Amino acid sequence: MEQVVANGLYLGAQYALIALGLTLIFALMNVLNFAHGQMYVLGGFITYYVYGQLGLPFAVALLASGATLAAAGALIEKFLFRPVIRRSIREESTMLLAAAVAFFLDAVILLLFGEKQRGVPKIVNGVFLSDALIMPYDRLLIGAVALVTIAMFMLLMQYTKPGRAMRALAQDRVAAQLMGVRVDRYSMIGFALGAMLAGVAGGLLVAITGVNAGIGGPISVKAFMMVMIGGAGVVGGAIAGGFILGMLESVGLSVLHAYGDITYLVIFATLIVFLSIRPNGLMGKPWG
Amino acid sequence: MPTSKLIWVLGFLALTLVAVPWMIAVTGRSDLYYTLTAVALLAIASGGVWLTFYIGRINIGQAAYALLGGYFSAILVVRYGVPFWLTLPLAGLLCAGASVLIGLPILRLRGVYFAMVTLVLTEVTRLLALALPVTNGAKGLVNIPLPGPITLFGVALLPDFSTLANPRRAFYFAAVVLMVVCYAGLYRLVHSRIGRLCLSLQQNEELAASIGVNVAYLRLVVYAISSFLGGIAGAMFIAISQSIYPSSFTTADSINFMLNCFLGGLGYVLGPMLGTFLLYFGWDLLFNAGQFQLLIFSAVLIVLMLTLPNGLLSLRPWKKMKEAVGG
Amino acid sequence: MDDILQISGLTKRFGGLIAVHNVSFSVREGEILSVIGPNGAGKSTLFKLVASFLRPTAGEVRFRGKRISGLSPHTVARMGVVRTFQETTIFKGMTVRENVIIAHQLRARASLPGFYFGSPTARNDETEFGKSADEILKLLGLDRIQDEPALALPHGHLRALGMAIGLATNPKVLLLDEPFAGMNHDETMRAVEMVRGVRDRGVTILLVEHDMPAVMQISHRIVVLNFGEKIAEGTPTEIRQDEKVIEAYLGIEDETIGF
Fold first, then answer.
1. C42 pLDDT tier (thresholds 50, 70, 90)
2. What is the rounded CA–CA span in Å between residue C97 and residue C3?
3. Measured over all CA atoms, what is the biggest interatomic distance in chain C, rounded to whole angstroms?
4. How confident is the model at residue B314 (pLDDT cuts 50, 70, 90)?
5. Which of A54, B39, B316, C25 is most buried, with most CB under 10 Å away?
6. Which of residues 33 through 62 in chain A touch B, CB cutoff 8 A?
7. Cβ–Cβ contact A84 with B under 8 A
């Protein structure tokens, strides 16, 4: 029992990181970042390269992942999303642009890193053993780092000037503009931040489960599910969604193990029922 | 049907059913039969997605119905010996039925929420195919026989495909005819009162309700038609490839259907047909780029989104005016 | 005259906010009844409740004795209680005439497949709709611009179109949401005549308005709301002299002036 909960928590922390990035981008720009999974994968590969191949400390590798994705995010926002948002009549254009970017990143990742599954050496050895649960130290560490990152993110959003600007932007774009918030600059910062979170999450998880070029899509799908559960555009919702999905996965894997791979089927069926009752997720802002 | 439209249709049929086979015979590029067949079938599926756009929903789950339709048809043919041509509409109807069950809870969602749910739908169908015993899991269903004949009163309307020297060409004809029939149906739908009602849904669901439109019902009917189209496209595909796996249709396909609609222009019935043609051929042409195929393709897509954010058919000036007024 | 609409104990709560509280009144068949009140009095919410676009927290609405609150909006429309919209909502992508024709939908006798295949019933419907549309357009003075795209219409014509859409449904009760808003004196007078013309066709009218002179001129009876509650009900003369009404409106005026 405690094992299931502990696994759920540590998974949940990772997932929350991914969901946070996605929901931030959605809140700021009303864009569903299809490429989020690919950004995660890219982060994982960069950490693999810096830590696994170059042998630099893990922290440096994480920083590299974060920084690269932040830069990529900023560029993508400024040169791709901004002009399209400005010019299109329909809101689906941005969704399609995101899909095209996802394909592009998939291609880049394949070219740069190949198809193989990659892993890195354990960052910390040893296992925490008790009567109730077994938790390898590296998972504990990763979980802790994830939680710290989430906490830092929330502090940033709550107390710093850029954080407040972004929240204002998410709430009411026009009002924020009237109050002097530089919409362009903070959209870019927000997107970069969202991408960075995805990249860091990827870097963290490569230390546990490894990474390969093909999981970008499924990760995006999972991220969407978290956001659906918790509600799009709300930070609390993303965190809740991440932890709930992590917990559901953990419970599902242990309980439904006998029935085969139907964990996600069950999750999805429950999700549909849940969405019928609460279409905007737990805390989401309504569309439009 | 007005004469001018009829002439267009006949012209199109003449082009595709006569001119193209002749050109293929002359140039010896019989591989093109498969390419064009794929385009035709994918265009049908994309047409379904386009229809969902017409009631104001972003449908990224069509591949789920293609997979579902494919499996329905394959199971009926392999396990129950049902003739393929009968399974084709059956698969469509079964998909429509499934879509009603799924649509009931999800169609009230809008925008991104609906899009997200449909995206997950494709993935879940794949998992379902992996898990259920009847679909044979990851091994899939293979050695699916070619379609049999359709005979009426002893007269063979359609030959047994296994007896044909060039089944690829026969599939091509079948696919093109199917596509034309489907698009004719879509065209009629859009230009009938039902199309107007859908437009009213797109523009203002509350106002539509206040003039007596049963919004939930209409949405469900349209979604069912859309999924029907996905189902028959999938079923037909399986007949050609003679095998089906859980990975036969993926989320990438769902996204591609949407891209096809978008590229062609969401305001026009023929948009998805044009979009599918361009994107598929574009992808195929890049085959020689080897490992750079996806890179170049997606880069071109991005450039297209930057320059033509409202789709291809919006370029032509008079159509642009029509769209501005038509919303 | 019978009561065509009975509103009893209607209450609507949004979370902690009570928008409408225990409102009761009846609308007599063939009359024009206006609901007025200061801003935020709950008029819009009341409207949405009557047309069943919102579910009441308590209370009910009855149409000719039959309960309609809680039914889906399109069902209520089919029964004859039709609402027009505050934001001059129309179908922007169609012409004026097309807007009115499509609004005939609930009179359609053909089914969806009928319309698809062009059955005789469907064709019959279309012809009838066309005729009825022409008549309505003429009544509301829109016939000259019937082929204009609806989104290009000036303000006054948009209102008329909104009313035309409502009329196309052949309603028994028409709920007009601020029909005179944003109009100058001449436009308002014309609109008043229009509403009278609609009523003379046998339609009962329930309207929500701010424009006092127009309301006083056109209404048979008036209901006054303040802070979600009914504070007065009566003829225009009675309302004009009602102390509570004067206080409600003057009170607001004092605030804005700053006494």
1. confident
2. 34
3. 69
4. low
5. B39
6. 34
7. yes
pLDDT band at A287 (very low <50, low <70, confident <90, very high): very low
Please report the domains of chain B, with CATH numbers, ordered by start residue. Answer: 34-284 (1.10.3470)
Which structural domain, as residue segments, surrounds residue A126? Answer: 10-215
Which residues, including other chains, have CB under 8 Å from residue A46's CB and lie 6 or more apart?
A61, A64, A65, A68, A69, A199, A203
In three state form, how does the secondary structure of B132-174 look? CHHHCHHHCECCCCCCCCEEECCEEEECCHHHCCCHHHHHHHH
Quick one: which H or E segment has residue C14? strand C3-14
Confidence tier at B150 by pLDDT (50, 70, 90)? confident
pLDDT in tens, A37-50: 999 999 999 998 88
* Whether C30 contacts chain B with CB within 8 A: no
- Whole-number Cα distances in Å, C256 to B44, C182, C229, C252: 62, 20, 22, 6
Instruction: Report H helices in chain C.
Output: 43-50, 73-79, 96-102, 112-117, 120-139, 155-168, 185-200, 212-218, 236-241, 243-257
Nearest to A187 by CA among A64, A62, A84, A284: A84
- Split into its structural domains, chain A has a count of 1
For residue B220, the SS3 value is: helix
3-state secondary structure of C17: strand
Is residue A272 in some structural domain?
A: no
pLDDT digits (tens, 9 = 90+) for B230-269: 999 999 999 888 888 888 898 889 989 998 988 888 888 8
**Where in chain C are the domains?**
90-168
CB contact under 8 A, C116 and B194: yes
3-state helix vs strand vs coil in chain C, percent to 5: 45, 25, 30
CB contact under 8 A, A262 and B127: yes
- Separation of alpha carbons A234 and A285, rounded Å: 7
Q: Per-residue DSSP letters for A156-184?
A: HHHHSHHHHHHHHHHH-HHHHHHTT--HH
Q: Does some domain include residue A158?
A: yes
Residue keyed to tokens 């490429």: A35
Structure tokens at C101: 């024709």
Q: How far is CA B202 from CA B51, B185, C148, C159, in A?
A: 11, 20, 20, 21
Distance CA B270, CA B263 (A): 11
The residue among A93, A96, A257 with the most chain B CBs within 10 A of its CB, best to mutate, is A96
pLDDT digits (tens, 9 = 90+) for C48-99: 899 888 899 999 999 998 999 889 888 898 888 998 876 556 777 788 888 8
Tell me which chain C residues have a C-beta less than 8 angstroms from the C-beta of B190.
none
3-state secondary structure at position C88? coil
Q: Are strands C32-36 and C221-226 parallel, antiparallel or unpaired?
A: parallel
CB contact under 8 A, A107 and B298: yes
The H or E element containing residue A62 is helix A58-76
- Select the residue from B305, B310, B314, B319 to test the A interface by mutation, using most A Cβ atoms within 10 A: B305
Find the helix or strand (DSSP H, E) in which C5 lies: strand C3-14
In a domain, A281, yes or no: no
Give the other-Cβ count within 10 Å of C129's Cβ: 20
Rounded to the nearest 10 degrees, the angle between the axes of helix B251-264 and helix B31-54 is 80
- A5: tokens are 């909960």
Out of A30, A260, A275, closest to residue B131 by CB: A260
Q: Model pTM?
A: 0.85
pLDDT at residue B88, rounded to an integer: 92
Residue A285 lies in a domain: no
Tokens of C33: 């009844």
Q: Which of B75, B66, B13 is nearest to B38 (CA)?
A: B66
Query: Scanning every residue of chain A, which has its alpha carbon at the shortest distance from the alpha carbon of B323?
Result: A89
Are the Cβ atoms of B211 and C77 closer than 8 angstroms? yes
Angle formed at CA A251 by CA A248 and CA A254, multiple of 5 degrees: 145
- Pick from C56, C87, C80: which is nearest to C69 by CA? C56
